[in-house]
Amino acid sequence: MYKDLGRTEEAREFYDRATRRAVNTGRRRQAAVARHYIFALEAERGSFDEGLDAVREALNLYPIYDRRVPYLAHDYAFLLMRHRYFSAALALLEKLAPAITKPEERVLVQSAIARAAAAVGRFEHSRAAAQYALETGKIYPEYAHASYVHLAQALRYAGEWDSAAEYVRRAEQMARDLRDAEVERVASEVQVEIAARIPPERENPAPFPHAVATIDKMFSIRLRRWLAPDRRGTEANTTATNAADRERRRL
Predict the structure, then answer these.
(1) CB neighbours of 72 closer than 8 A, spacing ≥ 6?
(2) Better pLDDT: 158 or 34
(3) How distant, in Å, are the alpha carbons of 25, 60, 113, 201 from that of 10?
(4) What is the structure's pLDDT at 244?
């Protein structure tokens, strides 16, 4: 509720209290979920250091085979892209992609892969992922509007400005029809940049903070265990339990 009203600090305090209560009563998974929501808040605000702290705490608290681990990895890849660590984001997205099997969710993952791949110059890989997202999104459109923002960004890297403008216009209109204010806002901002032919952001030349390398290694280990033949798919694709869950899986 606080987040929907734009009161992010109050939302963070609420989840902080929820984390402490859960830890104090031995409910580690509930604590992990609360930290995951805090991480989502920090990722949206663009707070990199606070986001790294929250994602590490959530990953440490989640049970090894919890169904939310691949979604936490996806959210973390989004944080990396926001801070222009596209190569790391792409590597992580490719590792988590087999764990996301619902077609409507794969649309979002593949569109993110298309964007990250284009950002590092892997255009054939980007086009293949984009084609999957487009074709599957026509049949499973739940997250198609968010995927179009990723695809528009991918097209910017390829210099296909007219197509990029069309996709971001479509994203904005669909988001408005769906009353998805966050995707509508992002699409509107990207549309302005595309209209002005502002070059897309390039790979961050700054060395990884030590925490990034540590978290990447943690995710690699967890996803490898999660996808082991005897565990693959365990509780991976149960329906999102509420609106906040569904929102977390978006852009």
Answers:
(1) 36, 39, 55, 58, 59, 62
(2) 158
(3) 23, 24, 33, 32
(4) 42
CB atoms within 10 A of CB 139: 10
Q: Output the CA torsion sign for 250, 60, 215, 211.
A: positive
Q: Classify each residue of 21-53 as buried b or exposed e, where b means 16 or more C-beta atoms within 10 Å of its C-beta.
A: ebbeeebeebbbbbbbbbbbbbbbeebbebbbb
Digit-coded pLDDT (tens) for 132-177? 999 999 999 999 999 999 999 999 999 999 999 999 999 999 999 9
Contacts with 181 (C-beta within 8 Å, 6 or more apart), sequence order: 175
R_g (Cα) of the chain, nearest Å: 18
- List, in sequence order, the alpha helices (H) in the chain: 8-24, 28-45, 48-61, 69-82, 86-96, 103-119, 123-139, 144-157, 161-178, 181-195, 210-226, 243-248
- Report helix, strand or coil for 184: helix
Contact 134, 167 (CB under 8 A): no
Question: CA–CA separation, 218 vs 212, rounded Å?
Answer: 10
Give the helix ranges, DSSP H, for 46-143: 48-61, 69-82, 86-96, 103-119, 123-139
Q: How confident is the model at residue 13 (pLDDT cuts 50, 70, 90)?
A: confident
- Mean pLDDT over residues 70-93, rounded? 95
- Distance from C-alpha of 43 to C-alpha of 148, rounded to nearest angstrom: 20
| Structural domain boundaries in the chain | 63-200+209-248
Q: Which fold has domain 63-200+209-248?
A: 1.25.40
CA pair distance 6, 21, nearest whole angstrom: 24
